[in-house]
Amino acid sequence: TYSRLWSYHKMSDVRSATAIESSSSLKTSVCANRADINDEQLQCSNVQDETKERSSASRRIFEVVKRAARAATSQRPRAVISEEEISRDIVYPLEWHKTISSLIALAFAMMLNHMALSAAHDVVSRNALPDLFFALSKQHDWALDVGDVLCSSSVIISLLFIVILHKHRFIILRRMAYNLSILYVMRAFCICVTHIPASYKNNTKKCIRPSHDSDTISLLHRSLKLTYQFGLQIANPQGLLMCGDQLFSGHTILVSTTTFYLNHYTPHSVWPLRWILITTCVLGMACLSLSRTHYTVDVMISYWLSSILFSIYHAFASMPHSVRLRARAYRRLIIFWTMFVMEVNVPSGRLPNELEWPFSRPHSIKDFVQNWSDLDLTTRVGRLADFIDAHRLNTHL
């Protein structure tokens, strides 16, 4: 590119010099024929001076381009630095206190949801609202248990993989807990302010009979029971459920957020696991509508909010630290300063997706995980991981 630029300027300089010389000779001859007029002599001298200045400027430009081309051709190509080499020089702090604080906030948000459900159960109507999906498909009671199993399996697999195998597990865990706590606090407020009736075909036969004289002790007892069940809708001995937590779906929040995190924080060599989790997530959300545990809009809003909050947080984490305080679009968010505190000591940019066995033994598993993460072609495990990486299907999530 520099050599082409040099040749182009050289040719243009020759052409401009030829044109300047021809025009100057023509103007000089004209001026010589009119030497008897003083004003014309002064004008001719000005033309000659202007011609000399243009010629010298053109030569200076040519010399600058010439030196730049020589300097560019003399430079050696720089070696490409891999992501592993960059990550070795960057320190990612553990910050246990932030991780523990995020987990405590998540537990508080979950408890707040259970208290909101306990209070809303006694006041919601038992007449279901019309839904397009319900009009096209009848209620399937088996889908409730299947949906709980699929959602729970997806969440457990995602958490186990990130907590056990990812090198930066504590940073990811507190980010996930932070996002989930915000979503569940939003859900608790939605349940409290607007009481949407249950979505079952016959709510009087599916829901526990409301109690109009509930006191604080009974509400706390219900909340603790839901907490003991990890928020799952487990029927009582009579086969009845608690109703009232419709807007929006807590199952979808949990399964979609954990799936987003697994897709974002896993190397390409484990892409089959990504597709398994995506399939499980989609089937679990479909079962929520098939069993009429939630309205279709509950599932849709939960997925959209989970996706938006995940994208906002990670877009903020990717910004350089010097730009974050000047980002007005983020400063308008209520959660801006909490995000800033959470990420103030974490290097900006995407976390390197490196796998690591957290224990010193057994050595076989530790070597297996290390060779898989490094794509070590000298080992059979590394060659297998490299083959899977080269033949991956992108999820775009």
Automatic annotation (TrEMBL):
Transmembrane intervals: 103-122, 142-165, 177-196, 275-295, 301-317
Alphabetic keyword roster: Lipid metabolism, Membrane, Sphingolipid metabolism, Transferase, Transmembrane, Transmembrane helix
KW Membrane (keyword) present: yes
Cellular component annotations (GO), alphabetically ordered: endoplasmic reticulum membrane; Golgi membrane; plasma membrane
Membrane topology: Multi-pass membrane protein
One Pfam family named in its UniProt record: PAP2_C
Main subcellular localisation: membrane
Entry superkingdom: Eukaryota
Coiled coil: none
GO molecular function, one term: sphingomyelin synthase activity
GO biological process: ceramide biosynthetic process; sphingomyelin biosynthetic process
InterPro entries: Sphingomyelin_synth-like, Sphingomyelin_synth-like_dom
Location within or outside the cell: Membrane
Domain Sphingomyelin synthase-like: 242-315
Entry similarity comment: Belongs to the sphingomyelin synthase family.
Descriptive protein name: Sphingomyelin synthase-like domain-containing protein
